[in-house]
Design brief:
The structure is a homodimer of 350-residue chains. The first copy, chain A, is 32% helix and 24% strand. With 350 residues, chain A is an alpha/beta fold. Chain A folds into 2 domains: 166 residues, NAD(P)-binding Rossmann-like Domain (Rossmann fold), CATH 3.40.50.720; 172 residues, Dihydrodipicolinate Reductase, domain 2. In chain A, strands 4-3-2-1-5-6-8-7 form an 8-stranded parallel sheet, with helices on both faces. In chain A, helix 1 packs across helix 11. The longest helix of chain A is centred in the middle third of the chain and has 17 residues. The two termini of chain A are 29 Å apart. The interface between A and B is large, with 58 and 58 residues. Chains A, B: It catalyses: D-glyceraldehyde 3-phosphate + phosphate + NADP(+) = (2R)-3-phospho-glyceroyl phosphate + NADPH + H(+); D-glyceraldehyde 3-phosphate + phosphate + NAD(+) = (2R)-3-phospho-glyceroyl phosphate + NADH + H(+). Chains A, B: This is Glyceraldehyde-3-phosphate dehydrogenase. Chains A, B: GO terms for molecular function: glyceraldehyde-3-phosphate dehydrogenase (NAD+) (phosphorylating) activity; NAD binding; NADP binding.
Chain lengths: 350, 350
């Protein structure tokens, strides 16, 4: 059994902990948290060994009547691999500690790509993480784009991807964030960081991204254009994407118009926390238009313009990727084996 | 003086009425409204002759203690041109009435292009409206796109425009509309109607548009990509757009991050109702990336990818266009004269 430690038990950490606990080949040796709150109470209730992420704050747990198994270093030392799910920037501070204990570490997308040996997406570059000591599981948006672009690149060749990311202003629990009644170009300078981040997975992919922030909390939504070398039909693209286990094609017959109904559907299906690990691609939106050949070029050079909308659940789509990254760094399974095991254990596939 | 009647005194009608009243060569002979409400009270307070748009509802005005000058037909008969600002679809019902009175009519973008002889944008196709009996002033979004694409097409040539329209769910007064906490692909099928609508102004322009609806009320925001034949610098594009009177380039130094601050800026400037008649283009967002030549083509064939964000005030950007359309149908002035007169009378130019 692979002994897994989770350092940081917030939005991502608690989900990865639950996912790890479900894996047939993994053992959750414990989770570390900085302070007591409802999430710490829940970790205890679930029987997860709870460790203090910051030694000085350990008394707070005693005051809250929560028994801690020890400090985070004890946890890291006991693990074969540690998943760092701390807030952006804290992972970088933890790096040396993981090295001291010679424990391979996975970080989240909020950390800089320079911090690690390899940035990771299971569909994009699983094998590159094997044997790495420091691996970064890319952000929710980059994960969603990587899952979509990988099969398109393999099947048709991508001339250029142009994506507008209409981002939720904050998660439902992030009550201090906005905007409330606005649409913010964010960042206002272009391209946004998302394109370069996709290039940490696919270095040669030509992609420009634009980001905005809006008053929504449930999911991000991507307005996607992919200029393809080949000119498939929309039907062929649908079939290609439908074969990907982590792409959910929302059927028109489901009458799902946005993230609200997607989340309600996930909850009706009994998904934990209403999580949606898959990209949600509106089947009706998959459209192929004639490409455009530059002035003086023949239509044969035009390729095709693919368009679609996809919604990304920012709180959970990286969870299966973290699980796969655990096996990847330890060389415990190849990509197909790991993805199949993760998907079955979680119940991926809507 | 050009005698102008306004049929429909809601969001657009009341603004066009005020704009017409400010023009040196126009006389507002009256406005027609279906029922008494705060807008009717304001029309009376401003001294605009008020007519009953629906004869059967005329008693409602008496009950509200509002004197009406007569029925709408009397108003239409007294005018050289009528601006129909009724809700979408009602304009089509009014068409025959305008013909009976032999009064040229302007309709709003909510009406079908098939209803009229020509769809109109002052920057795009002013002269085509001369002598037409039925002219449609295109919608706020189409107006905003036409103003932007016209100079780009003239200066650099447009291979293809790809625009994601992040639309406000409803106006501030439309309290029954949503969404509240969601991002809706709308329409979910592609392309949205906006691209074809732009083609009513520029029949040969290659454009694909995607639309979404979000919980915002103040302005629409466009995420714009224009694949150009030529490869100008961002600086050159900025200078080109800065020369257009109805394009406002938002300087970085203004520290305006979205529609909220844009509206506040407009109100600080004393704009009526805080209206913003101009496209608001974030100067910082104007970016030119290398174009992509299809496989096997040289870079010379690539052109360039222009990106920018622009915000469109849905309640007011068509107002100056309606004023210009009045002169256009009557042949009262050429495009440059009319735009200059309209801009000076309204105080366009931020």
């Amino acid at each position: 059994m692979i002994k897994v430690a989770i350092n940081g038990y917030g939005t991502i950490g608690k989900r990865v902990a639950d996912a790890v606990a479900l894996q047939p080949d993994m053992e959750l040796v414990g989770v570390a948290k900085t302070r007591p709150n409802f999430e710490a109470e829940t970790a205890v209730a679930k029987g997860y060994p709870l460790y203090a992420a910051v030694e000085e704050r350990r008394p707070q747990f005693d005051e809250a009547g929560i028994d801690v198994a020890g400090g985070v270093e004890k946890l890291v030392d006991a693990a074969d691999v540690v998943v760092d799910a701390c807030p952006s920037g804290i992972g970088a501070e933890n790096r040396s500690m993981y090295e001291e204990h010679d424990t391979p570490a996975l970080y989240q997308g909020g950390e800089s790509a320079d911090l690690v040996d390899v940035s990771f997406n299971a569909r994009g570059n699983y094998s590159e993480a094997e044997g790495a000591d420091h691996v970064r599981v890319v952000s929710c948006n980059t994960t969603g784009l990587s899952r979509l672009l990988a099969p398109l690149q393999e099947a048709y060749g991508v001339q250029k991807a142009r994506v507008t990311l209409v981002r939720r202003g904050g998660d439902p629990g992030q009550t201090g964030r906005g905007p409330i009644d606005d649409i913010l170009p964010n960042p206002v300078t272009l391209p946004s960081h998302h394109g370069p981040d996709v290039n940490t997975i696919f270095p040669d992919l030509n992609i420009d991204t634009l980001g905005l922030k809006v008053p929504a909390t449930l999911m991000h939504t991507h307005s996607v254009n992919v200029q393809l070398d080949a000119a498939p039909t929309a039907e062929e693209v649908r079939d290609l994407l439908a074969d990907e286990s982590r792409l959910f094609l929302v059927p028109a017959s489901y009458d799902i118009d946005g993230a609200g109904k997607l989340k309600e559907f996930a909850m009706d299906r009994g998904r934990p926390r209403g999580d949606i690990w898959e990209n949600c691609i509106w089947e009706e939106s998959i459209t192929v238009e004639d490409g455009v050949a530059p002035a003086g070029q023949g239509d044969a050079a035009a390729g095709a313009d693919l368009y679609l909308f996809q919604a990304i659940h920012q709180e959970s789509d990286v969870v299966p990727e973290n699980v796969d990254a655990i096996r990847a760094v330890l060389g415990a399974a190849d990509a197909d084996e790991s993805v199949a095991t993760t998907d079955e254990a979680l119940g991926i596939g809507l």
